[in-house]
Each structure stands twice: as structure tokens, then as C-alpha cells.
């Protein structure tokens, strides 16, 4: 790969536009963008919980990378293990990755009822669900079962969003606040036993990383295309070349909730 410091704007944009976006593997960004990780280490913590589970469900698993990593720590796959995903390219990728581990990947739209019976799982997990379906999560959990997840918090990476779209109303992301998630979980009958939030820096070191990020995380700048945002991309490229990086901040919270025993 040519160094981003010697590549032209056109070359960098073309490179960022050509990288496949399937799954949640972010290894392509190495050397081009950095993101501080939450202190709780979600994937490793998920592995600890999977070790004690007998029936697990991972919701909106993406390409299955996080679940695969969690099980790759020497953890035995639960006797019953399933994952859901709504985007067809990710369903294919997750199936290839997780089937060898004994995990069934089910194609299910993000906003549809979960295709499982009541009281099926003692562990339901998710990393960055688009919109948690709290009533469904509570329904499929066994009494005493746990929901363990890392959610995207309010105004995450909004420095980048607002660079392209201008100032955004506070209400646009208020439903992602940790206190809103707590209230929604409790309204569904779950008991929140842990809730922690952190705001962490993300640095983009070249414009190719910005282009790829916006193509991959499509809800940041809806309908993003290089052609439509070329002037803003060029201006941002010049800023990164001058300052060395563009800094934004991710917002994450860890949430663990239990379904009361009858």
C-alpha cells in the first residue's frame, strides 16, 4: 500500500471507496485510523459469560467477528448457540465464520420479532445493536438469564457527522443515552445490574479512512457518496494533511441486565 502521506487526494478517495464493507472487521484501518477501546473489554468479558452459558444468542452479530473472538479464548461453545443478522452479505460472512464453532446464524431483520421461543436463552448478547428490541430480548431470555451488551451512546462520532451535515439536533441521538436504555430495559421487566459509559477518541489519519468509515457505518451520513460530498472531502483531506489527523469521539456504554426468576 502506498503511504497515505505520498498519495494524492484522488488516489486515497478511490482506495477508500473500493474496500469491501461486509462484516465488522476493522483491521483495514490499521495505520490509517485509531480508536480507543472502552476499559471493560467487551469481547473478552463476553467470553467469560459464554463460558458459563448453556444457551446463547448474539443479536445483530455483523460478520460474527466479535462472537468468534470471544469464543476464541478457549471458551467452549454453549450447547445451544445462535446468532441473528439482517444484512445478507453479513449473514453469509457470519455463517462461514461461526458454523465451524457450532453456532447457527439466522437471517432476521433488525426490527422483526426474534424467531425463537419464549424463555430459550440464558445469555443474550449484542455489540452495537441498531435499535434494541427490549420486549423481545426479555421474552427469549430464561428467568435468571442475562442480557450483556455494548451499545453506541449519544452523539457518537458527531464531530465527523456534523462536519458533513452541519449541526444536528440534540434529539436526534437522545434515545441512545444510557439512562434511556436503563428505563427501556426496566420497562421490559429486566433488572439492570451494570451500566457504565465512556467517551473515547477516534483519529482519522487519511481521507481514505474517512471514506471507508462512512461507507461502512452507513447511518452516520445517510446516503453518503464520494461524488456528493467531494468538496467537503477535499477540504477535510487538506486539513488532515496540515494537522496530521481529524479527531472525533465515540460514545459507548456497557449494559448488563437480568430477567427476574419467577
Write structural notes for this entry.
The protein is 33% helix and 24% strand. It is α/β, with parallel strands linked by helices. An eight-stranded mixed β-sheet has the order 1-7-8-6-5-2-3-4, sandwiched between helices. Helix 4 (88-98) links the parallel strand 3 and strand 4 (104-107). Helix 1 (9-18) runs parallel beside helix 8 (207-216) and helix 2 (42-51) crosses helix 3. The longest helix is centred in the last third of the chain and has 14 residues, at 230-243. The model has no long low-confidence stretch (mean pLDDT 94).
SS class = alpha/beta
Question: What topology, given as strand order, has the largest sheet?
Answer: 1-7-8-6-5-2-3-4
For the largest beta-sheet, the strand count, sense and barrel status come to: 8 strands, mixed
Helix content: 25-40%
Strand content: 15-25%
Radius of gyration: 19 Å
Shape: globular
Q: What order do the SSEs take from the amino end to the carboxyl end, as H and E?
A: HEHEHEHEEHEHHEHHE
Low-pLDDT windows of residues = none
Strand count: 8
**Total helix count?**
9
Terminal-residue CA separation: 58 Å
Which oligomeric form is depicted? single chain
* Rounded mean pLDDT score: 94
Amino acid at each position: 500500500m502506498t503511504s497515505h502521506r505520498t498519495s494524492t487526494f484522488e488516489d486515497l478517495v478511490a482506495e477508500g471507496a473500493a474496500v469491501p464493507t461486509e462484516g465488522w472487521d476493522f483491521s483495514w484501518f490499521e495505520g490509517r485510523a485509531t480508536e480507543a477501546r472502552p476499559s471493560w473489554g467487551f469481547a473478552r468479558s463476553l467470553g467469560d459469560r459464554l463460558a458459563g452459558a448453556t444457551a446463547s444468542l448474539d443479536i445483530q452479530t455483523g460478520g460474527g467477528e466479535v462472537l468468534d473472538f470471544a469464543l476464541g479464548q478457549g471458551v467452549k461453545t454453549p450447547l445451544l448457540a445462535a446468532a441473528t443478522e439482517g444484512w445478507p452479505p453479513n449473514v453469509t460472512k457470519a455463517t462461514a465464520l461461526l458454523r465451524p464453532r457450532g453456532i447457527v446464524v439466522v437471517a432476521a431483520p433488525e426490527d422483526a420479532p426474534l424467531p425463537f421461543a419464549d424463555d430459550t436463552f440464558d445469555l443474550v448478547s449484542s455489540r452495537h445493536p441498531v435499535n434494541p428490541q427490549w420486549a423481545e430480548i426479555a421474552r427469549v431470555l430464561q428467568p435468571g438469564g442475562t442480557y450483556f451488551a455494548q451499545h453506541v451512546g449519544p452523539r457518537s462520532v458527531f464531530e465527523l457527522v456534523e462536519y458533513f451535515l452541519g449541526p444536528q439536533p440534540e434529539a436526534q441521538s437522545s434515545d441512545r443515552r444510557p439512562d434511556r436504555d436503563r428505563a427501556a430495559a426496566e420497562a421490559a421487566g429486566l433488572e439492570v445490574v451494570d451500566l457504565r459509559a465512556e467517551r473515547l477518541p477516534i483519529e482519522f489519519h487519511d481521507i481514505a479512512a474517512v471514506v471507508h468509515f462512512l461507507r461502512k457505518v452507513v447511518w452516520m451520513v445517510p446516503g453518503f457518496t464520494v461524488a456528493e460530498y467531494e468538496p467537503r472531502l477535499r477540504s477535510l483531506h487538506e486539513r488532515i494533511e496540515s494537522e496530521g489527523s481529524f479527531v472525533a469521539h465515540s460514545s459507548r456504554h456497557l449494559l448488563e441486565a437480568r430477567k427476574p426468576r419467577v
